[in-house]
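Proteins fold reproducibly. Take a sample protein:
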Amino acid sequence: MGEAAAAPAVAIAVAEPRRRPRPPARAALLLLLGLGLLLRTGDCQLQTPCRIQKCTTDFVSLTSHLNPAIDGFDLEFCKALRAYAACTYRNSKVCRGNLVYHSAVLGISDLMSQRNCSKDGPTSSTNPEVTHDPCNYSSRTGAREHRGGEQTPPVYLFCGLFGDPHLRTFKDHFQTCKVEGAWPLIDNNYLSVQVTNVPVVPGSSATATNKITIIFKSYQDCTDQKVYQAVTDDLPAAFVDGTTSGGDGDTKSLRIVEKVSGKYVEMHARYIGTTVFVRQHGRYLTLAIRMPEELAMAYEESQDLQLCVNGCPSSERIDDSGHLPLPVMGQLPPHAGSTQPRSVYTLESATTKCHEKMLVKDIYFYSCVFDLLTTGDANFTAAAHSALQDVEVLHPRKERWHIFPNNGTGGFVKGSKLSVSLGLVCLILVAFL
């Protein structure tokens, strides 16, 4: 159980961060597991005052809540690594003959190289009074958990809106709605998001988003209220007051990052642990947001009309209880024929077009097909594809990334090709009622 056992354990721990997008917190946990097991082997190791296990435990507590999708991840992870390195250095004499210690030193060096961390710079501290930063949500929650003796990371929620429009709520419910005009997606004590939807084609109740207004509410000394507004063909990289950030100091608590000029911006609000993506595809906008559950649910009773929280009102739904309904064969809704616009796509060609970008036939794939058949606009293919990409970056639970059409039994399952095809036709017909 000596060197032969140590080498594989450390190799696994060091290699884990390369498997993106797997969070480095898991790599740290594997590192702790490997070192912890090795620490229990060999009587001489148990009898030494070497505190390498404490160093590793502190590193895990500092990084377990970090996520690569959140702004400032590299800064915080490097600070934790430097603290880990400093801890091993303080124990260098007493741990001189400890195999686990030397394996940890090599692992730290490799991680710092992978993350481009400098050896000199600020370090994290396990002292909650030192690490507490009121303008950093992760720091606040980490300090609070440390004082309470619990190490449970905060729970994050995801909401997205794209296409005709298709809504994914904080509860992972997927809906297709009409919601013409201005509607609140989010309205809590920290953030307000409102979208404006307009009809896509004449004679259809299907709409798409052409305006997004986001209000980051003032919070302590972290930021004043900031308003962001995007409309079709005007996706600015600044707030309405012309600034690109909020808060004082070198590390801004709120900032805008332009990824693609006029097409894609990100907003990172460190003080509330929130990330927002806004994109434009063709003439319409899409939105994706990740927010801590405790903040997303902090609202008054009068603020209950929030699409991300409670979904669309039943009168605004185009889909049927979250699954694709089957129409009565040979029967068309009344007045559908004269007003229905003609799409350049057939069911077969729309399916082929969407399959070019989305290989998994989940609800995003079928939403893409529905949008192509409804509008004939190929830009909706890119919108559905980027919406799924945003899920993969911001949604905290990988097993919930893909949602499959509901067959009416209460669970998400893959429907048959015939059922889904008929369901899509029905959805389109319902949209024109």
About this structure: The longest helix spans residues 73-90. The two ends are 72 Å apart (CA to CA).
